[in-house]
Amino acid sequence: MPVNLHALSVQAPIEVFMTPRYRMLIGSELVPAVEGLWQSIINPSTEEIIAEVPQANAVDVDLAVQAAQKAFPAWSTLSPGERSHYLWQLAQGLEKYSDELIQLESTNAGKPIKLVSNGDVPFAIDNLKYFAGQARVIEGLGTGEVVGGYTSTIRREPIGVIGSIAPWNYPIMMAIWKIAPALAAGNTVVLKPAPQTPLTSLKIGEIAQEIGLPPGVLNIVTGGGPEVGEPLVIHPQARMISFTGSTATGKRIMGLAAHKMARVHLELGGKAPLIVLADADIEAAARGAVVGSYVNTGQDCTAVTRILVERPHYHHFLDRFTELSKEVRIGDISSESTDMGPLVSADQKERVAGFVDRAQAAGIKLHYQGTVPDGPGFYYPPTIFVEAPTDSEIMQEEVFGPVVVINPVDSVDEAIAVANDIRYGLAASVWTKNIHQAWKVAAALQFGTVWVNDHLPLCAEMPHGGFKESGFGKDLSRYAFEEYTIAKHVMFDLSGEAEKGWHFSVFGDPQ
Ligand code: NDP
After folding, report:
1. Whose CA is nearest to atom 11 of ligand 1?
2. Could you state a single Gene Ontology molecular function term (predicted)?
3. What pLDDT sits at residue 2?
4. Residue 3 forms part of a structural domain
């Protein structure tokens, strides 16, 4: 269906019945959905409607992919320095609107203000700046005469239009993790934020327009998985799909992408173990475990979910962890002293409660459960199970809430075996003062990141990504940049001869 984007474009954001309306970025315009449908966005801590965003469909997706396809030849042939400049300008634009982004992210995702203002937003901007630099660093094999009489060289080329699908747990960070390396490498992007948390992504779209990012280089389309996600995944011109979310949806996307042999980059679920060895600093381990368990209300694919403590210190650790869990301050996300906010949605709260109910029904001991404030909001309290069988659902499945299991183990080898007895492999930590044990356990753990004596820190320069059913493809670092490129071998004949020495093996006789 031919659609005139100009006829749909309006200035952003407009107010209708006092509810701000945000619009999608397609090509050079901020637009509503072609069908004119809107979706309400809720603050998870108050359950109030805070905004409306376009509810797009396959027609909007097609327009966005076409815009990205049209932008690709010019963007991909800019010099790395020119692309770097645009990304740096975008980072400066995000800095300019940092206060607004912090407010939007906090109220849209239900995150405590101190987490967003000290973590999510400055880290996202830092990551964008990193990729502005990485755009200028092309690494790989040196050019040379690998075969006599020929010069071989590798070109690192962009892939084309990237369809990026982000989750709701870290909306601005995930948007940047997808946009920045892809654009740095010369691709163009169509981003679909999660339907619950699109506001900071749509703001990035406004900022991209304001800083003059060339039309179509970045496009942002809002809506649900079936209406927007799948049309993007199966669109013939989307040559790679970058997805962060559940393992189940990742498998579906991989299956759909296989039909057109498109590349996939999948950052999926996690079920991180935290191993406390007998010689560990128990106070440090307990504090690290509390931060790792309750960060972002446990809605973090690297969150601590299975704590394995060598038996001599099991009760000491459990007592200290429980004491600290009681100190976690839950409530008003706008207060600087709030440690933990609500879950993202009523659905997620029901999902988490379901895991807890089933664990109790299975006879697993509930050691502690806190309380949540009265009133609205999808709050769920810190919850500690103990001594759960390794094959139980609560030890095997991603809960994505502030729910943790603490089990004793009788040896380092048992800790490693239990930690690895899981289909996921994203992140893990080991706590010990023994350097030999630290190296041994770090090498044995089948996870993409292993921390020693800490849990959670990430940085732009180092890769993040999974083993096993946590997916494949790295985020952050030069490894992420490489994910968004394709290696091309170009081989030059140096002889200039019509009949080469090796031709006889196919045609004619040896010379
Ligand atoms: P999903 O993986 O189903 O959704 C993540 C994103 O993918 C959303 O934007 C979703 O849109 C979209 N999506 C869903 N189905 C498709 C599809 N077939 N094609 C394209 N896009 C699609 O996660 P949920 O939101 O349902 O959360 C469920 C669980 O997933 C959580 O409890 C948690 O365990 C895990 N999860 C893990 C994350 C991680 O960082 N590893 C992040 C988020 C969730 P829509 O919501 O409209 O379906």
Report:
1. 225
2. aminobutyraldehyde dehydrogenase (NAD+) activity
3. 32
4. no
Q: Supply the mean pLDDT for the chain.
A: 96
441 and 295 together in one domain: yes
Q: Would residue 462 count as lying in a domain? A: no
At 498, list the tokens.
């019509």
509 in any annotated domain:
no
- What percent of the chain lies above the pLDDT cut of 90? 95
The Å distance, Cα 274 to ligand 1 centre, comes to 25
CATH number at residue 194: 3.40.605.10
3-state secondary structure 429-496: EEECCCHHHHHHHHHHCCCCEEEECCCCCCCCCCCECCCHHHEECCECHHHHHHHCEEEEEEEEECCC
C-alpha span between 87 and 99 (Å, rounded): 20
Q: To the nearest whole percent, how much of the chain has pLDDT over 70?
A: 97
Same domain, 146 and 245: yes
- The residue whose C-alpha atom lies closest to atom 39 belonging to ligand 1 is 245
- CA 403, 173, 467, 238 torsion-angle sign: positive
pLDDT digits (tens, 9 = 90+) for 234-265: 999 999 999 999 999 999 999 999 999 999 99
267 noted as active-site residue: yes
Q: Give nearest CA residue, ligand 1 atom 14.
A: 225
pLDDT surpassing 90 at residue 139: no
Residue 205 forms part of a structural domain: yes
CA–CA separation, 340 vs 170, rounded Å?
Answer: 15
Pocket test for ligand 1, best of 196, 246, 380, 458 (most atoms within 8 A of CB): 246
Atom of ligand 1 nearest to the CA of 193: 9
**CATH label of the domain that carries residue 305:** 3.40.309.10
Residues 306 and 216 in one domain: no
Q: What is the mean pLDDT of residues 142-156?
A: 96
Structure tokens at 324: 């600290």
Considering the candidates 267, 469, 482, 483, report the single residue annotated as catalytic: 267
The domain boundary residue, chosen from 423, 452, 481 = 452
In the predicted model, what is the mean pLDDT of residues 356-370? 98
Counting the structural domains of the chain, the total is 2
Q: What local confidence, expressed as pLDDT, does residue 416 receive?
A: 98
Closest CA to 12 of 25, 189, 191: 25
| Together in a domain, 93 and 229 | yes
Host domain of residue 191:
56-268+470-489
**Whether residues 390 and 421 fall in one domain:** yes
- Please write the tens of the pLDDT for every residue from 292-340: 999 999 999 999 999 999 999 999 999 999 999 999 999 999 999 999 9
Cα of 313 vs centre of ligand 1, distance in Å, is 38
pLDDT for 17 beyond 60: no
Rounded distance between C-alpha atoms, residue 211 and residue 200, angstroms: 16
Rounded Cα distance, 233 and 164, in Å: 9
pTM, to two decimals: 0.95
341 and 199 in one domain? Answer: no
Can you tell me which atom of ligand 1 is nearest the CA of 230?
19
Mean pLDDT in residue range 265-291: 98
Shared domain check, 431 and 365: yes
